[in-house]
Write a structure and sequence with these properties.
Blueprint: E1 2-9, E2 17-19, E3 25-29, H1 36-45, E4 67-75, E5 80-88, E6 96-99, E7 102-104, E8 116-119, H2 131-145, H3 149-171, H4 181-216, E9 223-228, H5 244-255, H6 257-263, E10 274-279, E11 282-283, H7 284-287, H8 290-312, E12 317-321, H9 329-338, E13 344-348, E14 360-365, E15 368-371
Parallel strand pairs: 3-13, 3-14, 8-12, 12-13
Antiparallel strand pairs: 1-2, 1-4, 4-5, 5-6, 6-7, 9-10, 10-11, 14-15
Bound molecules: adenosine-5'-triphosphate and magnesium ion.
Adenosine-5'-triphosphate (ATP) binds next to helix 1.
């Protein structure tokens, strides 16, 4: 999948941007606060996933402007497609979203057309940081492959909210234990399904990540990623998510009922699960160095891109926002070598001394983007 043209105007500080990216590497450089991440964000929004920096609707349009438009043209192996996202004041929530000229209700309906993988400096904390990030990583990765999964996760989250509120009511004497039943039954099916898909995804992730980690550590260290479920002892080869898995799930809910009730919170379930990484059999979060955990994070993200490629049969577009400058030279080379066949957008502050012959160089200054053609030694 390749982005062929990009037009952005009035999205945050970007003004009159019109570029025709290289189908290989695009380096977007410029000083701080010029609009590099805004450009990456505009591309990412076209993939139909909410902003990786949590941009609210009200911040979508230039503070001093009235209208924002993002338009891109991209191709996969079958055809060229167009995406347009536009918003205008005063109803900033009301966006005009189009795929190939056909109106869609929301940006999220674009999901599944343009596939991107984004790396931000925060992603380098994926291994060391909060389990919440690993769960979101896993859920987004799965939904990029299986679009209906997103809906399941959102239903599950809703049921958890409802169940927790009943738990609090039981605690205060306003509900009884049997009021949980209708939520538990739903939770058991949804939660079993999520656990099963996540387990299988992490299994696949492990295969790719293990190989990549072997490369990055030059064969000195072995990485193992494992899905850790708070409900199931064993998820290998389990499929019957609405039958025997759901029964086991219900049993687990029943075991933790008193704890749940006391805390007003559902203790076990995919919302508490995690991906554990082991380096040479030691939990990397507990024993690994900062550098080792960063390497784990990198290979997890690379593995995500590879799996997506394998599953959808098209290379995702890779967006690297400010990541390379955070890495040492060896890791920079490693990342570049592993994604060289994808279309890549890389942001950085310093103009690179030289770039490859099929790469393009863009400078961002005060929200405007200029292609630099005089690139120096190739
Ligand atoms: N809604 C908005 N309207 C106008 N300008 C905005 C809006 N939201 C953010 N900006 C501006 O965008 C600029 C930041 O852009 P961006 O985060 O893309 O910078 P950057 O080039 O990636 O910088 P860095 O190198 O520090 O990461 C800031 O100057 C900020 O004030
Ligand atoms: Mg930035």
């Amino acid at each position: 999948m390749k982005i062929k043209s990009v037009k952005v105007d009035g999205f945050k500080n970007l003004k009159g941007v019109e570029i025709a990216p290289s189908s290989q590497t695009n380096i977007i450089f410029g000083e701080n606060a010029q609009g590099k991440t805004n450009l990456v964000e505009a591309l990412w929004l076209c993939s139909g996933v909410k902003s990786f920096r949590g941009t609210k609707d009200k911040d979508f349009i230039d503070l001093n402007g009235q209208r924002a438009v993002i338009e891109i043209e991209f191709e996969n192996s079958f055809r060229t497609q167009t995406i347009k996202i536009a918003a205008a004041r005063p109803n900033v929530r009301d966006k005009n979203v189009e795929l190939n000229g056909v109106k869609l209700k929301t940006i999220s309906k674009l999901f599944g057309n343009l596939s991107c993988v984004v790396f931000t400096p925060e992603d380098l904390e994926l291994s060391k940081g909060s389990p919440d990030n690993r769960r979101s990583f896993c859920d987004l990765s799965i939904s990029q492959i299986k679009h209906s999964y997103r809906e399941v996760v959102s239903k599950y989250e809703n049921v958890i909210v409802q169940r927790n509120s009943v738990l609090k009511n039981i605690q205060s004497g306003n509900s009884k234990r049997s009021d949980l039943e209708i939520w538990d039954i739903q939770l058991a099916k949804l939660g079993s399904y999520i656990s099963m898909l996540r387990y299988n995804y992490v299994k696949k992730l492990n295969i790719f990540a293990k190989n990549l980690y072997n490369d990055i550590s030059r064969g000195k260290e072995e990485l193992e990623l494992r899905y850790s479920s708070t409900v199931f002892e064993n998820l290998e080869k389990r499929e019957d998510f609405s039958g025997e898995m759901a029964d086991e799930y219900l049993k687990r809910l029943s075991e933790s009922y008193y704890d749940d009730m006391k805390s007003g919170f559902t203790q076990a379930g995919p919302h508490r699960d995690d991906i554990i990484s082991y380096i040479n059999n030691l939990n990397s979060r507990e024993y690994g160095s900062q550098g080792q955990n960063r390497s784990v994070a990198l290979v997890m993200k690379l593995a995500q891109a590879y799996i997506l490629f394998e599953e959808i049969g098209e290379e995702p577009v890779i967006l690297l926002d400010d990541v390379l400058s955070e890495l040492d030279g060896a890791r920079q080379d490693f990342v570049r070598s592993k994604i060289k066949d994808f279309q890549i957008f890389i942001t950085c502050c310093k103009k690179p001394e030289k770039i490859g012959k099929d790469s393009k160089l863009f400078e961002v200054r005060s929200g405007k983007v200029f292609e630099i053609r005089n690139r120096g030694g190739d």
